[in-house]
């Protein structure tokens, strides 16, 4: 249902399927993970929250292998467009910022959150801006 809705939105709004997938579909499918993470944080289960986030993202990467196996026109990776590569670079930059956050630990940073959270939010805002202005 999410894929069909995303495809229809892409057609009716005349927005690329990559933009719909990277923005709306990704947010929609990530909301349950957000809810469970917030519930774990409210209970003080910080390791459960972090494990859920990292595990969920690791599992998402496994979807690429399953999608590649299901794609009948060859390798899925050869069908990647430039817009997909843009979001891949944004994702890699976010991962780099998060890795730096694991190396350089701080209790509080800008706006009461760590620099890595500010960096990830800034990168996502940059991605949104570039995608919308296209």
UniProtKB/TrEMBL annotation:
<feature type="transmembrane region" description="Helical">
    <location>
        <begin position="48"/>
        <end position="67"/>
    </location>
</feature>
<dbReference type="GO" id="GO:0055085">
    <property type="term" value="P:transmembrane transport"/>
</dbReference>
<dbReference type="Pfam" id="PF01699">
    <property type="entry name" value="Na_Ca_ex"/>
</dbReference>
<keyword id="KW-0472">Membrane</keyword>
<keyword id="KW-1133">Transmembrane helix</keyword>
<feature type="transmembrane region" description="Helical">
    <location>
        <begin position="110"/>
        <end position="133"/>
    </location>
</feature>
<feature type="domain" description="Sodium/calcium exchanger membrane region">
    <location>
        <begin position="8"/>
        <end position="132"/>
    </location>
</feature>
<protein>
    <submittedName>
        <fullName>Cation:H+ antiporter</fullName>
    </submittedName>
</protein>
<dbReference type="GO" id="GO:0016020">
    <property type="term" value="C:membrane"/>
</dbReference>
<keyword id="KW-0812">Transmembrane</keyword>
<dbReference type="InterPro" id="IPR044880">
    <property type="entry name" value="NCX_ion-bd_dom_sf"/>
</dbReference>
<dbReference type="InterPro" id="IPR004837">
    <property type="entry name" value="NaCa_Exmemb"/>
</dbReference>
<feature type="transmembrane region" description="Helical">
    <location>
        <begin position="79"/>
        <end position="103"/>
    </location>
</feature>
